[in-house]
Amino acid sequence: MVTLVLPRLAARAERRFQRAAAVAGRNVAAARHVGYWWVLVSGFFEPVLYLLSIGLGVGALIKGFTLPDGRTVSYAAFVAPAMLAASAMNGALAETTMNMFGKMKYMRLYDGVLATPVQPFEVALGELMWALVRGSIYSVAFLGIMVGMGLTSTGWAIAAFPATVIVGFAFGGMGMAIATYVRSWQDFDYIMVVQFAMFLFSGTFAPVDSYAWFMRIVVEVTPLYHGVQLLRGLATGALGWGLLGHVAYLIALASVGLVIAGRRMGVLLYK
Amino acid sequence: MSAAEPLITARDLVKRFGDFTAVAGIDVDVHAGEAFGFLGPNGAGKSSTMRMIGCVSAPSGGTLRILGMDPVRDGSAIRARLGVCPQQDSLDPELTVRENLTVYARYFGISRKVARQRADELIEFVQLTERAGDTVEPLSGGMKRRLTIARALVNDPAIVLLDEPTTGLDPQARHLVWERLFQLKQRGVTLVLTTHYMDEAEQLCDRLVVMDGGKIVAEGSPRQLIDRYSTREVVELRFSEATLDSYVGKLESIGERLELLPDRILLYADDGDAAVAAVGNRDLRPSSVLVRRSTLEDVFLHLTGRTLVD
Amino acid sequence: MAHPAYAVFEHQLVSYRRVWRGSVLSSFLLPVLFLLAMGLSVGGYVDRTGGLGVRYLDFIAPGLLASTALQVAASESTWPVYSGFHWHRMYHSMRATPVRVADMVRGHIAYVLLRVALSALGFLIVMALFGTLHSWWAPLALPVSLLVGLATAAPIFAFSALVKTEGMFAVLFRFAVVPMTLFAGVFFPVDSLPLAARALAYVSPLWHGVELTRAATLGTASAWGAWAHVGYLVAWCVAGYLLATYRFGRRLAE
After folding, report:
1. Integer Cα distance of B89 and A201 in angstroms
2. Is the minimum CB–CB distance between B84 and chain A shorter than 8 Å?
3. Is B231-293 in CATH node 3.30.70.980?
4. Is C68 helix (H, G, I), strand (E, B) or coil?
5. What positions does the domain ABC transmembrane type-2 occupy (chain A) (predicted)?
6. Of C25, C46, C170, which is closest to A190 when you measure between CB atoms?
C-alpha cells in the first residue's frame, strides 16, 4: 500500500514544486531587465544605511550597551541583527504585498497563469520562493558586512543565515495572505504604518524591558519581535531553548499565511 | 474517451453571480477539429461560458465535461491541454515578446529547451520575429493580440479558446488575426471562439450558437442559420425625413419581412432588385438604397429584435 | 476668474478629500512613532552618557520635524507627478486648457506645500506636548519646514517629469531621501561623520533645515548662521523650480 501511494504523492509534490518554480522563474526573467536591477540592488543599501546611522552614529552617543543577560556589547552589535531581521521582513513584505497586489489587480498576470495547469496555491508558493531567494541575497550581503565590521563572527553569521530565511518565509507567507485582502493602493498606507511600528518597537533599537508591561505583551505577540530575538541570539552567540520557540512561531505564521493566501486567491481569481 | 465523443459537452449549464444569472441553462457539443462559435451581443453570457470551459470558473448548475474530464475536479489536468486567449490581453508587461512565451511554457512543465524552440516557431507564425526582443508595452493592439494567440498555442493544445479575438482591433489588424486563425483551422486545431462580430463568425466558424440573455436561441452553420432565419437578400432603405415610422405602412407586403431600425428600414426579400423596383412603384423616394446578401446580423435581428453591436 | 494655478491647486484638493485618512497615518503618525521609539526608548541610553548637552528627545525632535517635511514633500512629488504624465495623464488634459506649464508646477507645488504645512503643524503640536519646545522662536520652525518642503519638492518635480519608469523612485528614496534622513544630522550630530560624508551632509538641503529647526526650538545658534542656511535653501527652491518648469515643458512637448 505504502509503496503504491508514496511514489504517487512524491510525483504530485514534484509537479507542484515544478509549477511553483515556473512562477518564480517568471520573476527571474523580469529581474534580468535593467530597470529592475536598480531597484533590486538599491534595496540592499537601506538596512546598511540604518546600521551605519543608528548603529554607529547614534551608537557613538551610547558608550557600552548591556544586554539583559548582563553581557556588554557595542550598540552597533545590538542593532545589527535587528536590522537584518527588519530587512528580511521588509524585503519579503514588499515582494508579497505590493508586488503581488500589482500583479493580481493591475497587471492581471495571474489571470493568464491560472489558465494553465498552475493552481493558486502554487502561484503563492512560487512568489514566496522568489521572495526568499531575493531576501537571501540581501541577508548574505548584510551578514558579510556585519562580519566585516566585527559585529559578529563568521561562524555565527553562517548559523544566522538559515534563520533569516525563516524570518523571510514568515513575513512572505503573511504578506501574501494580506495582499489578497487589499482593496486599493491606499490600503498600503495602513500596512506601512503597522510595518514601520513593528520596525521601531520590536526590540530593534532598544531592549523591550524598558517598555510598560502592556506594550511588552503587544510587542511579544507581533512577528518581528521573534525574528529579532532569534537573529540577535544567533549573531551574538547567545544560544538557548527559547530560540526554538521563536522558530516555531515564525514557521507557524508562514504556513497559516500560505494556506490563507492560496485559498483567497482561488476565491478572487476563479470567479 | 472514444474518438466520436465530443471534446466539450455541456448540458443545462448554468452560471450565476449572486442573483444575476449569466448563463441560463445551455446545451453545447464541440467536436474535434471544428471551429465552434458563440455569437451574441455584450452580456449574452459568452465570456462566462468560456471561463467555465477554461476551468477558471465553476459551473453553478448542469453538467460540463471537457476532454472527458470534470472541470472542477480535474481543472489543472484539463487546462494543461487548453490554449486560452482571453478577451483582455494578460501579457506580462515586464517581459519581452519571447520571454512572454518561454516563461508561459514553463507553467505547462515544458522544458526550457523545447520552450525556446517553440517560442521561436510561434513568434514566426504570428509574424513578430522583428519584435521578439522588445518588451510588450510599446506593441500595438494587434501585435499584442497576436502574441496572446501565440501564447495560447505554446502547449500545443487540444482546444484553443478565443474570447472576442479581434475586439478593439483596427480592420487591418483584424484581418491579420483572422488569417492566422484560419491557418490553425486548416491544421485541424479545434477552435472555440466568442464574438459579437457577425463577419468574424461567418469567416471562422464551422458551426455556431447564437446567444442572447444567457440562453441559446439558435444553432447551426452560418449558412444554415441564414437560410433558416433570413431571406437571401436584404434591401436597406434610408429616407431624408426623420420619422421612419410613416414608411412602415407604405412598404407593407414588399418582401417577406420588414425591420425598422433607428436610422434605416430593412426589407427582407429573396430578390432584392425586385423589392427595390416595388418600392419605386409606390412612389417612395429613399435617400439611399442598398441591396446586400443576408448575414448573421440579420439572423440575430430576427431572433432577438436587437442588433449585435450597439 | 481664478488664476489657472489656483485651479490646479484645487484639482489636487479634490483628490485629497478621498485619500486624507491614509495620508494622516503616513505623514503624521510615522514621525511621531519615530519620536517615541528613538527619543524616549533609545534616548534613555543616550542621556545616561550625557554626550549631547541636551536631552536626546529634544535633540531629535526638531530633526524629525525637518525630515518629516522632506518625507511628505518627496512622496507627494514623486508618484503623483509621475501619474500626472503616465497614468492619469492629468497634465496632458490640462495642456488642452488655458493652463500654462508654469501654472501646473506652481499649483501642484502649492498643494504639496499645504500637505507639508499640515504635517509640520501636527508634529509641532506633538513636540509641544512632549515639552521639546524651549524657545519663543519655535513657531519659526513652521516656515522653515515649508522652505525645506519647497527646496526638496521642486527638484523632485523635475526628476519625476524626467524619469520613464516608476522604479526610479525606489532609487531616489534609497539613494537620496533615506540617506539624507539618516545622515543629515537628524539622529546624531554630523561632526562625528567622516569628512566626505560630512561634506555630503552639508550639500543636502535637509541638514540646513535641521540646523534652522533645531536653532528655533532649542533657542540656540545654528552652525553657519541662520541667513546662510536660509539662503542655501532658497537657492535649491529657485533652481528646482526652474528645472521643474523646464522638465514639465519638455515632457509635455513629447
Report:
1. 45
2. yes
3. yes
4. helix
5. 38-268
6. C25
Element (H, E) at B194: strand B190-195
> Is B151 close to A15, i.e. CB distance below 8 A?
no
Q: Out of A21, A30, A117, whose CB is closest to B108?
A: A117
User: C35-45: b or e for each residue (b if 16 or more CB lie within 10 Å)?
Assistant: bbbbbebbbeb
The residues that bridge with B293 in the sheet, in sequence order, are B233
User: Is the pLDDT score of A1 beyond 60?
Assistant: no
Cβ burial of B303 (10 Å; 0-12, 13-18, 19+) is middle
Q: How far is CA A154 from CA A49, A85, B42, C168, in A?
A: 21, 18, 65, 35
CB-based contact (8 Å) between A113 and chain B?
A: yes
pLDDT in tens, C71-121: 999 999 998 899 888 877 888 888 878 888 899 999 999 999 999 999 999
Whether A216 and A208 have beta carbons less than 8 Å apart is answered as yes
Q: Does A210 sit within 8 Å of C188, measured CB to CB?
A: no
* The three cell numbers locating residue B201: 463568425
Task: Domain ranges for chain A, please list them.
Answer: 12-269
Chain A hits for C56, CB-CB cut-off 8 Å, are: 61
What's the ipTM? 0.88
Nearest 5°: CA angle at A132, between A131 and A136? Answer: 120
Residue B270, pLDDT > 50, answer yes
CA distances (Å), C186 to each of C51, C155, C190, C234, in order?
Answer: 16, 21, 9, 21
Q: How close A271 comes to chain B (CA, Å)?
A: 5
- Dist CA A118 CA A165 (whole Å): 25
| pLDDT for res A34 | 67
- B8-220 adopts what CATH topology? Rossmann fold (3.40.50)
Domain boundaries, chain B: 8-220, 231-293
Mean pLDDT throughout C246-253? 90
> Residue B17: which H helix or E strand, with range?
strand B8-17
Interface of C to A at Cβ within 8 Å reads: 19, 21-23, 25-26, 29-30, 33-34, 36-38, 41-42, 44-46, 48-49, 51-52, 56, 165, 167-168, 170-171, 174-175, 178-179, 182-183, 187-188, 192-193
Backbone angles phi, psi at A63, to 5 degrees: -70, -85
Rg (CA), chain A: 20
Which residues of chain A make contact with C30, given a CB cutoff of 8 A?
192-193, 196
Task: Kindly calculate the radius of gyration of chain C based on its CA atoms and give it in whole angstroms.
Answer: 19
Q: How far apart are CA C172 and CA A24, in angstroms?
A: 27
**Joined grid coordinates for residue B96:** 519581452
Give bridge partners of residue B235 from the DSSP assignment.
B267, B291
